[in-house]
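ok so i was messing around last nite and threw this chain in just to see what happens. nothing serious, just curious
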Amino acid sequence: MKKQTFASPARADLSKNFQAFTELDRVKYLDNYIIMIDGKVRFSGKDIRKMLQQAKKKYPRKTPLIAKIPKEEVMVLII
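result:
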């Protein structure tokens, strides 16, 4: 018998947000934080604490994707 698994709502939220993040035009968000909920940028700016408070208040049951969009390219070194 196959084990049946169900995606949690949080996992579904993150998957939708991550997919939208990979397709996001990041130019207008350079050097800012973004908070994505339901596949859309809901908040952007420099004050992440204030944005998180607003996101928790407005979307209490959603799992956001939070990212910092650097103003320059970032080099990741894997050793």
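not much to say yet. The chain has one domain: 9-69.
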